């Protein structure tokens, strides 16, 4: 019976992956060339190359085969790499063949995803079935201490820089406080608030859920709202909702339903034909990251690269642009110096070190995911790692790896995940 169920799931996966690819192709054509939103048509050419379509299908299927063979819901590594595959790689292949874009860069991106998958296969073959060793040290005390420190700092930040909860029901006016926060709040406070909203508060929710003291949830939820009123970032509100949603899907073993859900979402957006919904649900969600990715490649293949001069090596390497890559693209390509053209971790890696950078950062990301996998494997509390780290991880779709580790708190998420898993050994 289990074998038949597994075969049914695999057939459904193949079917839904094919529908997803077709829907993305139709969405690109419909939005930019039937619906014709001329506001955003620049940079989204329609130049169909059917040989590149074959390439797109071959690599979509071959790299997607990993998630056909393994159960996604049994692995943090597979869950996160699958999300990148679905949200980044498949739309990337669609954009590649429909806009007849650079083949060299296409194979660079294929290489990055291949590295991610090969590292997982190597881990399962050589290092899997790790078991937790018994220890007398109580990590729960450290976890509670971290909660207390961040709670105190967040309350202090709200008393010093916070605004009225009025903005929670008037989201269109948050830009007033967003500009003010950029001027007033020190950089180190911004990091703390980001780590709190994206990592520490989700960890505290995981802790409270684990000990089943649900009435205590009012504390982290209130703090999250207060943090929002400090800098007006809507992402703090919506990221927590997305976090909880993905956590429920993963904990219920329903990751295989992600593709059908995306197919329903795209179908709904196409049928609704609302300007704003289509712009966000099709253009922004699936094709802006891909367009920017090729723009980065086109610019930095003919201009000097950054060589990590805007990272921790800035003291040793001169940045000839005096800008980070998102602002370089905004200024010299889009002629909007105040805009920040954020892009995914692969294109950002190319802007620093070219193809070597893509390989290097793909390996680093694979090692990070292996760390999550190593500490969570065979642990019954593995599902809570998703709740703790997903908001930080999702930033990779529109941010560099180093920025995600530092600013978006992925490194903090790894530490908090380890503390949580070691605090509870059921």
UniProtKB/TrEMBL annotation:
<protein>
    <submittedName>
        <fullName>Uncharacterized protein</fullName>
    </submittedName>
</protein>
<feature type="transmembrane region" description="Helical">
    <location>
        <begin position="215"/>
        <end position="238"/>
    </location>
</feature>
<feature type="transmembrane region" description="Helical">
    <location>
        <begin position="408"/>
        <end position="424"/>
    </location>
</feature>
<feature type="transmembrane region" description="Helical">
    <location>
        <begin position="244"/>
        <end position="272"/>
    </location>
</feature>
<feature type="transmembrane region" description="Helical">
    <location>
        <begin position="12"/>
        <end position="30"/>
    </location>
</feature>
<feature type="transmembrane region" description="Helical">
    <location>
        <begin position="77"/>
        <end position="99"/>
    </location>
</feature>
<keyword id="KW-0472">Membrane</keyword>
<feature type="transmembrane region" description="Helical">
    <location>
        <begin position="188"/>
        <end position="208"/>
    </location>
</feature>
<feature type="transmembrane region" description="Helical">
    <location>
        <begin position="349"/>
        <end position="372"/>
    </location>
</feature>
<keyword id="KW-0812">Transmembrane</keyword>
<keyword id="KW-1133">Transmembrane helix</keyword>
<feature type="transmembrane region" description="Helical">
    <location>
        <begin position="50"/>
        <end position="70"/>
    </location>
</feature>
<feature type="transmembrane region" description="Helical">
    <location>
        <begin position="105"/>
        <end position="127"/>
    </location>
</feature>
<feature type="transmembrane region" description="Helical">
    <location>
        <begin position="139"/>
        <end position="159"/>
    </location>
</feature>
